[in-house]
Amino acid sequence: MQRFSGGRQLRAWFLAATGLAAALSLAACGVTITAASPAASAGGDTQAGPAPSSAETTGGAATGSATSTAGSTAAQWKTYTDPARTVSFDLPAAWTTQLVPGKPGKGIRVEVRGGSGDLMATLQTHLPAPGGTCPAAAKRPYTVLASIPLQIPSDNTGAAAVAPRFVYRVIQGGTHFYASYGITDQAGGADGKACLVHNTVQSNALGAYMFGDVRQFTSALDGSAGLRAFATIADAQAYMRTGGYLDIQRMVTSLKVLD
Fold first, then answer.
1. For 123-175, what is each residue's pLDDT tens digit?
2. Please, which contacts does 92-99 make with residues 24 or more away whose CB atoms are closer than 8 Å?
3. b/e per residue, 206-241, with b = 16+ CB within 10 A?
């Protein structure tokens, strides 16, 4: 009986060591490991995340969108407008923006950081046009957890084009589910699988532009740099009920492209 108990302890130690090694490997690849437990919201109620769905919509009502009352997000907000009055968006008063210098006539890049200095999202215009191939063997299970239509310009006429929207999407890796948020006008995959997913919208005036965590992500088993990693899809959904996610969703969905 004693030997059986010792075996259980040895197995528990081995699993813990394996988990630590996986976490260190992910960190070395630039992947952020985010705690799955939801933070308490400051007043108001939030709607629980929807059941996983891989369907992408083409317009109309939001599919799989997370909603919240105003009290679920930061109490004080402000509006950012770039010097050329190209775009504007709302953000929590405690967050900061930095306009990153670039080549003249090559668009804008604005980095948004949270109160602790962490990069929350990047807004950039005139990016390289999205492209790349997606071999069937590289496709991995892919899920859309939030999809909210936006009133922003899109001139995407490709076969995978959808009406522009804010999305929160998850792709399965080797040991974790990797999650990304941003704007898009292109479906990430079909039949519940994907291998190259773009967080960009294509416009004649702004070129390809983004507002989210990364410009694109792939089906790499160890994830793509800049993504959050979760042990399960349920954990990725739980993140949708945190104040941090709700602030990001409210900020990105407030994006306006000015005349």
1. 999 998 877 777 788 899 999 999 999 999 999 998 889 999 999 999 999 99
2. 92/247, 92/251, 95/120, 95/247, 95/251
3. bbbbbbbbbbbbbbbebbbebbbbbeebebbbbbbb
Reduced to 3 states, what is the DSSP secondary structure of residue 28? helix
Helix (H, G, I), strand (E, B) or coil at 21: helix
Residue with tokens 């004649």: 204
Residues with Cβ < 8 Å from 131, sequence gap 6 or more? none
**Amino acid symbol at 226:** G
Q: What type of residue sits at position 248?
A: I
Largest CA distance in the chain: 76
Backbone angles phi, psi at 132, to 5 degrees: 115, 160
Instruction: Output DSSP code: residue 29.
Output: T
